[in-house]
Task: structure prediction
Amino acid sequence: MIKDTSSQDVILTQPKSKKIWVISAFSAVILALSFIVYPSISNWSSSDRSVSQSRIRVAEVERGMFIRDLSLQGNIVAANSPKLYAPAVGTVTLLANPGEQVNKGDTVAIVSSPSLTNRLQQEKSRLESLQIELERQKIATKQARIKSRQQIQLEKVVLDAAEREKRRAEQSVKIQALSQIDYEKAIDDLKRSQLKYDFAIEQAELEQENLSFELKTKESEYNQYKLLVGNTERLVNELNMLAPVSGIIGSWSVEQKSAVSLNQPILTVVDLSAFQVEVDIPESYADSVGIGMPVKVNYNAQEYDASLISISPEVTNNVIKGRVAFSAEPPPGIKQNQRVSSRVIIEQKDNVLYLPRGSFVQHHGGLKAFVIDGEIATLTNVTLGARSIDKIEVVSGLEKGQTVIISNTDFVGDAKILNLN
Result:
């Protein structure tokens, strides 16, 4: 029979001090973990919802210059683009092609109009005839004046002779060398001569008025026809169509060597030094913008100073048309109908609190915002003011340096405290 090993077993007892040390170490670890995890557990328990920081966009409240502006889209238009029209019926010859550079006064087209040139020749011939008639009338007037003056002088001579005869008769009657009847006859002759002289003067004056009237009539007829000839000459000169401004040929309205009618459009000349921007102003901003407001036109990544010079009085498709003029020379290389963006500076404020513009105002209508403190975002009452393209004015509820969630927070629902992780 095999004996067991009970005689060899020895009961070992654990040292009391080692057991105490293990328990103490475990308690210390638990206590340390509680200090580390407690803030997170506390935040989690006090928050309404936990949100990942990757889903939000934050920004600090800043203080400085706030510019309230309005972004507008528009097209480049030529403020001065005169169109040339046919001065008469004829055949047109176009000398400048679309896009070609021209200077003011250059001949850009010629209209051949035989009927107009023939009419000018006829009118000139008629004008020469009227001029001859006018000169003939002047000569006739001079002749009539000479004849009237001659008649007056002759009657004056007869009157003087009758006065001498009367004086002679008076002396003869005194010495009784002349009868009373002959004396009375001398008196009658004097009266008759006086009447003829007076009538001659009146007749000459009346004749002078009549001649002046006839001469003025001829002169008026001549001058009137001269104006007609001048107008026809102007039309003939306009057959050589000149560029009214320096620029480029915009487009042809007719084909080369085609027949044109009176006042038919021929071509357009675009003045390159007078470009403007036609902008579309939303109807909701109609009361905010006004003539004279400064505008920044963005072209080729650069901003150019301009100003709002006109606003249409009517609304079309919920927009109002406006015109913007550059303060200096237009940007080089700019083209008509080119699409550009611009900013209308409505107002400027200094020392203003503001945030970058974001979609956070959509959640609570701009009356509340989440302010971040550490890992907690608390919903806070705020008052927002004016809005620009990239900024929103903060009137109250926030202070400089505070961090605010500016992205859309619709996904948190009615939560008022967020735990950011």
